[in-house]
């Protein structure tokens, strides 16, 4: 009441100043007299403190420390998963970066991850792990060597999407991470259409790097031990540049992957794309294509079908076999870690093909016969990873020995080989009775 009177007196004394002074004077005097100002100031202080402490998007992004990669000598941003999640809007330039704060309804829970080639052997195991972790996974696959069967158990899960798409064509997606696996891996498959293979490795990788650049996603390339060709250094260390025939029948794959690595490093250095490079050594496990011609799948399927194991050449060439769960663990550590690589991911246990045949005999059928066949062109004589770098920088090493992993694969193959046979028998019987 008193304040109103004061205000009216003021009104009659200076009518032309009314519109200018009416609003500010009344609340200020009111606050001063009622000692409300102190409450307002304390309120503002508490709100500012709370906002600074609990709102990650409002705080200006802290500079992320840089690490130097011992191999590439290049600089890269360190970003543990926690760091990445809290600053994802800043890093990705996605919805979170627009205007700083993410509207409540648009906040994401897990990461959005693309797995190209996710319907294949390795990709589908990786997808299982990512889904289990709570990520939103998009599989991009043209089903050349992969199959819907490998990811069917995720159908209906709202965190899972499957897109039939060939990576040789551009694609627009909004994601945080890209695991780029799309490429046939078995020699029989990649030699089937060599031009398509090299296009997949070069144009496909270029497109996925373009996507990574556009949305600020981290990009992991699944390269291969084949970049070492027929190696003159044994075991192979990441610093070894390899011995590859550039015009041979395997070069669509070997040189394709070497170019893919080059592209990844050029996008990293030239466009600041966060890249990771894994050089994968021979991997086996459930869901491998039964008739893809790779040695472990061939031997296992042959032993189960009571056919002779086909050893190419004199069988003295060596490979190192890694169980798929070890590889997936290595890929995820690499993606989440702060090092570009390249990293060898493989099991250093080295076997000749004759020794492998023996392990398959012991596991499936001691009476399985061995049949020698001529070897294929440019077949590498030996291969064994030096994994010192992955051990030191990723804290990773394989856990599953060949004799432990093989029975797990045999169980899966047994179901598929004999399941298929039963299915065939049923179809033949029903068509003959019609
Ligand atoms: P895979 O053949 O089972 O899987 C490859 C997947 O990529 C398949 O689902 C296939 O349909 C898909 N694909 C192929 N071309 C494509 C294209 N143009 N567009 C979209 N999708 C396409 O092979 P994998 O063993 O799972 O290998 C996965 C990755 O790991 C490959 O890049 C391979 O080069 C690499 N790698 C594998 C091994 C191994 O021993 N398994 C060793 C070294 C490297
Ligand atoms: N690309 C894509 N998806 C994207 C962004 C790019 O498939 O979200 C493709 C694009 O079509 C191009 C390739 O990635 O063929 C490389 O893209 P980049 O922007 O690096 O090169 P540019 O388009 O300038 O040649
Ligand atoms: N190999 C074999 N018998 C087979 C298939 C392959 O002896 O039925 C040999 C092949 O000659 C090579 C090794 O096994 O020396 C590994 O071949 P794979 O195709 O599995 O993979 P690579 O390492 O050659 O890509």
Automatic annotation (TrEMBL):
Q: What is its main location?
A: Golgi
Q: Which residues cross the membrane?
A: 37-54
Domain annotation NAD(P)-binding: ranges: 115-407
What Enzyme Commission number does this protein have?
4.1.1.35
Q: Which GO terms describe its cellular component?
A: Golgi cisterna membrane
In terms of CDD domains, this protein maps to: UGD_SDR_e (cd05230)
| Entry keyword set | Decarboxylase, Golgi apparatus, Lyase, Membrane, NAD, Signal-anchor, Transmembrane, Transmembrane helix
Q: Would I find Cytoplasm among this entry's keywords?
A: no
GO BP annotations listed: D-xylose metabolic process
| Chain positions covered by the region annotation Disordered | 1-20
Q: Where in the cell is it found?
A: Golgi apparatus, Golgi stack membrane
- Basic and acidic residues biased stretches: 1-13
What are the required cofactors? NAD(+)
* Pathway(s) per entry: Nucleotide-sugar biosynthesis; UDP-alpha-D-xylose biosynthesis; UDP-alpha-D-xylose from UDP-alpha-D-glucuronate: step 1/1
Q: Name one GO molecular function term.
A: UDP-glucuronate decarboxylase activity
Q: Pfam families this protein is in? A: GDP_Man_Dehyd
Functional note: Catalyzes the NAD-dependent decarboxylation of UDP-glucuronic acid to UDP-xylose. Necessary for the biosynthesis of the core tetrasaccharide in glycosaminoglycan biosynthesis.
> What does the similarity note say?
Belongs to the NAD(P)-dependent epimerase/dehydratase family. UDP-glucuronic acid decarboxylase subfamily.
Name of this chain's protein? UDP-glucuronate decarboxylase
- State the species of origin: Eruca vesicaria subsp. sativa (Garden rocket)
